[in-house]
């Protein structure tokens, strides 16, 4: 019989504010679709700095393998989290009201040398989820198969659209 996998979270999805949730939910939806155990919480680099630090320091010991961090404006949550852990951090720039997310994007993508944050496009938490799945698939054959199936389906969808377009 195949050994069942643990339900212990391996991905942590964190975000700077409740207002980030509609965006960050898309990362959670991808993780759910691929049956990746994850946890989620609001942690702010400026409103709850001590909690953010404790989380980042303890994440690896807690069994987390990848952190997805979303933040907007002066978006230092992904970078500050990355400073406290050597786990891979994927940053999601949240679309802000004032600057449409350009502020969030630059804050996250422009990490100085030494502390990397893998940054996805503004608001594209779905890609952050997919990237986490792909990273985990490096050492998980079942997951590798699932991601290949997902890609094949996307490819097929384009071909189907073309059939309709050419009619
Ligand atoms: C950041 O400030 C959050 O990540 C959020 O995107 C932005 C605005 O937060 P709220 O004022 O909506 O709580 O810390």
TrEMBL record:
<keyword id="KW-0413">Isomerase</keyword>
<dbReference type="InterPro" id="IPR000031">
    <property type="entry name" value="PurE_dom"/>
</dbReference>
<comment type="similarity">
    <text>Belongs to the AIR carboxylase family. Class I subfamily.</text>
</comment>
<feature type="binding site">
    <location>
        <position position="17"/>
    </location>
    <ligand>
        <name>substrate</name>
    </ligand>
</feature>
<protein>
    <recommendedName>
        <fullName>N5-carboxyaminoimidazole ribonucleotide mutase</fullName>
        <ecNumber>5.4.99.18</ecNumber>
    </recommendedName>
</protein>
<feature type="domain" description="PurE">
    <location>
        <begin position="9"/>
        <end position="158"/>
    </location>
</feature>
<dbReference type="InterPro" id="IPR024694">
    <property type="entry name" value="PurE_prokaryotes"/>
</dbReference>
<feature type="binding site">
    <location>
        <position position="20"/>
    </location>
    <ligand>
        <name>substrate</name>
    </ligand>
</feature>
<comment type="pathway">
    <text>Purine metabolism; IMP biosynthesis via de novo pathway; 5-amino-1-(5-phospho-D-ribosyl)imidazole-4-carboxylate from 5-amino-1-(5-phospho-D-ribosyl)imidazole (N5-CAIR route): step 2/2.</text>
</comment>
<dbReference type="GO" id="GO:0004638">
    <property type="term" value="F:phosphoribosylaminoimidazole carboxylase activity"/>
</dbReference>
<keyword id="KW-0456">Lyase</keyword>
<dbReference type="Pfam" id="PF00731">
    <property type="entry name" value="AIRC"/>
</dbReference>
<dbReference type="InterPro" id="IPR033747">
    <property type="entry name" value="PurE_ClassI"/>
</dbReference>
<dbReference type="GO" id="GO:0034023">
    <property type="term" value="F:5-(carboxyamino)imidazole ribonucleotide mutase activity"/>
</dbReference>
<comment type="function">
    <text>Catalyzes the conversion of N5-carboxyaminoimidazole ribonucleotide (N5-CAIR) to 4-carboxy-5-aminoimidazole ribonucleotide (CAIR).</text>
</comment>
<feature type="binding site">
    <location>
        <position position="47"/>
    </location>
    <ligand>
        <name>substrate</name>
    </ligand>
</feature>
<keyword id="KW-0658">Purine biosynthesis</keyword>
């Amino acid at each position: 019989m195949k050994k069942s996998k643990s339900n212990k979270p391996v991905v942590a999805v964190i975000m700077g504010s409740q207002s980030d949730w509609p965006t960050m939910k898309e990362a959670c939806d991808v993780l759910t679709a691929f049956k990746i155990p994850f946890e989620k919480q609001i942690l702010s680099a400026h409103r709850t700095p001590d909690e953010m630090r404790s989380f980042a320091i303890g994440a690896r010991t807690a069994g987390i393998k990848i952190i997805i961090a979303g933040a907007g404006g002066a978006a230092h949550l992904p970078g500050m989290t990355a400073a406290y852990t050597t786990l891979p951090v994927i940053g999601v720039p949240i679309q802000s009201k004032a600057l449409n997310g350009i502020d969030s994007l630059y804050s996250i993508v422009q990490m100085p040398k030494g502390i990397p944050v893998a940054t996805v496009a503004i608001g594209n938490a779905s890609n952050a989820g997919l990237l986490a799945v792909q990273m985990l698939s490096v050492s998980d054959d079942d997951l590798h198969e699932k991601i290949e199936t997902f890609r094949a389906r996307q490819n097929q969808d384009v071909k189907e659209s073309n059939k309709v377009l050419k009619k």
